[in-house]
Structure formats: C-alpha cells, structure tokens
UniProtKB/TrEMBL annotation:
It comes from Tieghemiomyces parasiticus. The chain crosses the membrane at residues 24-47, 225-250, 256-274. Keywords: Membrane, Transmembrane, Transmembrane helix. InterPro entries: DUF4436 (IPR027948). The keyword Transmembrane applies. This is Uncharacterized protein.
C-alpha cells in the first residue's frame, strides 16, 4: 500500500509529464513571482513623496510663540492666517527646490464673507517679499529655495537648505515701528514631487518671535533607487554577455550565428541610452557611473566588438570561397 508521500510524488510526476499540467505549473510560478514583486513595488510607489511622509504643521499664537503641532483648530487664535507650503518641483542638479505658498485669512484679517484681506500684510518667504494689499485676495506666491548637496553621489545624493517665513502688518512697517506687528499664523508643509522626497521641518527661534524656520532635506525616493539599481544590473548583464561571446569567439573559436554577434555589438552601444534612462541622472561622473558605466567601458575596449565582427566575416568569406 503506497504511503501519502508516494502518492503525492506519483501525482506530481504524472502532472509534469502532461503538457497542459506543466503549463499550469509554469503559470502558477510566474503568477507567484508577479504577486511577490509587482504589488509591493506599486504600494511603495504610492507612498513615496506627497503628504504621506512630509507633512508638518506648526501654529503660532498672538505673541508669535509656537503652539503644539497637534493644537485643535478651536484653540488657535481667531485672528490668524493659514499658510499652505507645497514643494512642487525639485531640480537637484541646479540645487533648487520650487515652492508655492497659499494663504487664507481669518478673523479680523478677513474682509466680510469673502477671502479678501481687511488689513494689508507683508510676508517674507525666504528670499521673496510679498505684499498683500487690503481689499484683495491673498494670491499664491511662488519662490525658489537653494539647497546644498553633491550631485556626483547620485543616486545616493542628499540636499539640505533652510529659509524663514514671517508675516507682518504692512501698516506697522509703514509707520517705521521698531517692533512691527506680527500676524499669528499656522503653516502646513507638504511635498508633491514624484521622484524626490522633500521633507520640510518647521521650527521657531526663541529670540525671534513670529518667525518660523523651514529646514529642507531632499533625497531620491526608494523607487528611484530601485530603478537605478535595475539599470545598473542590466548594463552589467549586457557587458558580461558580450564579453563572454567575445571570449568564446576568439579563444574557443566557437561559431555563432551572425545576427547574434551583431545584436551583442548593438547592445554595447545602448549603454549610454540605458545610463541616461535613470531618472534625474546628472552629468557624466556620478556614483552610478562609477558602479557601472565607467567599469564597463574597459570591458568593451578589451572585447573589441569590431575586431570580433571582422573575424566572423572573415570566417564566412573563407568558408564560402574555399568550400
């Protein structure tokens, strides 16, 4: 009487011998690999950048002092301005992060039932000064913040910067007062960049009430890092494949079909295109080039594809002429 393990082994052997069952097994294996790789990568992509990881909230009281970040809206000053700071674009090669600021007045700063200003305000967003006139809506302000980093470390590069946010009443500035009237405000920071994670941390200084310091840290998303690693692996695979074909052709005198050699040589010329396919890659000479592109150029020179093609054509002509 066969045991359970023997019955299972016989069933597996029978299923493997039949073509339709074998195709089903292949399909299940491919489906399992797909479910293991694609859904986790997609979920990781959805949670990179945006509100999920970079939101920060900081309110100020009427004296310009910081309140706890989780202060309920009901406990905030009634006369205030709510600011929304959004990082919309990052050009790390040029060391710039583009922001826009939206502002909404409340309390005595709000004119009637509309969002018009009842009091003129002057805002300082980093290097940009914005004057909001009374009777008008607070328009969206766009500005660029410089960041410091090292593009040559791509894709492991990281950048940092900082800027100040201050909101004052314009009338107090016009009067030449030594202590301008600061406006209580709450600021929320977000990031909306696909390939870069921009974290904006908000804080205050005890010696400068009414001022918020925004510190920026920008780096590549894990999705970008993963894609760069895939490109590097593909480049190494292509280079090693061509080197192996060249070794077999020259040393072992192995005959290959013409299209195979030509395709291998063509793949070597695709390396610059693969290198530039990395998202946000800077000029030649970054860390990813040292890991792949620069290492593969000597391999291409040593294999000398043109020499191998000429040798292959010479064999074809010799066989055709002397047979």
């Amino acid at each position: 009487m066969p045991t359970f393990k023997e019955k299972l082994a016989n069933l597996a052997r029978t299923a493997w011998r039949r073509t339709r069952y074998r195709r089903g097994i292949y399909f299940c294996i491919i489906l399992a690999v797909w479910l293991t790789i694609v859904p986790p990568v997609y979920v990781t992509y959805l949670y990179q950048g945006g509100e999920a990881h970079t939101t920060h909230r900081l309110p100020l009281d009427i004296n310009g002092r910081a309140l706890p970040a989780d202060t309920p809206t009901a406990n905030l000053p009634a006369d205030r301005v709510e600011l929304t700071l959004v990082a919309e674009q990052a050009d790390l090669t040029k060391h710039k992060v583009d922001y826009y600021m939206e502002a909404t007045p409340f309390g005595k700063y709000r004119g009637g039932s509309n969002s018009d200003l009842a009091v003129g305000l002057t805002a300082y967003y980093g290097p940009k000064d914005v004057v909001y006139k009374a009777g008008n809506r607070m328009a969206v302000a766009n500005f660029k913040i410089p960041v410091l980093g090292y593009p040559r470390m791509f894709p492991f590069d990281q950048y940092a910067g900082r800027f100040e946010v201050t909101l004052l009443e314009t009338a107090s500035l016009a009067n030449g007062s030594s202590t301008p009237t600061s406006v209580p405000f709450i600021i929320r920071a977000y990031s909306d960049i696909q390939l870069v994670v921009v974290s904006t941390t908000l804080s205050t200084l005890d010696d400068y009430p009414g001022m918020i310091i925004a510190e920026i840290v920008a780096k590549r998303t894990p999705v970008t890092l993963g894609f760069c690693f895939v490109v590097i692996i593909i480049m190494w695979g292509l280079a090693l494949t061509v080197a192996t074909l060249a070794f077999q052709l020259v040393v072992w005198r192995t005959d290959f079909a013409g299209p195979l050699i030509i395709a291998a040589v063509t793949l070597m010329f695709s390396l610059p295109g693969l290198r530039n396919a990395q998202p946000g890659v800077p000029a030649l000479g970054c860390a990813s080039d040292m890991l792949s592109y620069f290492c593969l150029n000597p391999a291409a020179a040593l294999t000398d594809p043109k020499r191998h093609v000429l040798l292959f054509l010479k064999r074809i002509l010799r066989n055709c002429c002397f047979q």
